Amino acid sequence: MAAPHRRLLLYIGGVSLAVGGVMLCFEQRHVHASCATNMAAPLAIRVVTFLGLALGAVLLLAAASCA
User: Fold this and answer.
1) Could you tell me how far CA 65 lies from the centroid of its own chain?
2) What is the tally of helices (H) and strands (E) in the chain?
């Protein structure tokens, strides 16, 4: 069913991964103005998120090479 829309779905996946990467970088440096402490996610959460984004990028490239 998704075959006719494969290229569009690959583009959407790529944009989503890019936005996720930008948001991850932004969150690492973000300090809330209402609090003096850094409210960013713990290091373990950021590492797992990065690994998920990296795996998504590998799978996206694999899918694009088959197209």
Assistant:
1) 20
2) 2, 0
Q: What confidence category does residue 28 fall into, taking pLDDT thresholds of 50, 70 and 90?
A: low
- State how far the alpha carbon of 8 is from the alpha carbons of 13, 22, 59, 64, in Å: 9, 21, 16, 11
Residue 9: pLDDT over 70 = yes
The length of the chain is: 67
Cα-Cα end-to-end distance for the chain: 15
Which run of H or of E encompasses 12? helix 6-29
Letter for the amino acid at 44? A
Residue 30 has pLDDT above 80, yes or no: no
